[in-house]
Amino acid sequence: MLSNRKSLICDHAKIISPQLLPEIQLYLAADDLPIWRMGEDELKEIGMTTPFWAFAWAGGQALARYLLDNQDLVRDKRVLDFGSGSGMVAIAALMAGAKSVLATDIDLMACAAMELNAEINNVKFDISNEDVIGQTKGWDLVLVGDVCYDKRIADLVIPWVKEIAATGTPVLVGDPGRFYLPKLGLQQIAKYSASTTSLMEDSDLRNAQVWTVAD
Q1: What does the angle CA 88 – CA 91 – CA 73 come to, to the nearest 5 degrees?
Q2: How many CB atoms are closer than 10 A to CB 37?
Q3: Tens-place pLDDT, residues 160-185
Q4: What range does the domain containing 133 cover?
């Protein structure tokens, strides 16, 4: 099954560097490939769910850029990249000197994309489709990119990361100012303009922020 997922990704995505991350290559949707405009029924026919892994989301780009530009924050750390999608942030963490990275996503296609993206960037990290919400120990740094697109998800993730921060573990959140991201308890530490796509966002350019969660 994993090999089938990888084949689907290779057939329907292209290797592209996100605008903010010329150091990183990812299998991403491209406007000249059908996956870019497929509806849910068409995706189901080829064995895919909505390919969130195939887009370099603005918050993730900002978070990855911040890590690469501030490597002391991640060097020699055990890192959790929650809701990793393409693995973009996990890859940046390793490039910045992380000791180890666990990248999690409940979408098995995303896990396959992470494996492919790790290979083309010559890095290795652990990949899991386990739902780790509720776990608060085992990491020195927790990274969360673009998960507040939905109220239900935000209501689960934000209290959890605040609980992690309360244990003394730093938590960084990348987000382009989504409605469901509660600002209380968050401190903005960086801001970037990131190219994205109006097919998945409401604009081709998003101002994405990096936030730290107060302990």
Answers
A1: 105
A2: 10
A3: 999 999 999 999 999 988 877 877 78
A4: 57-213
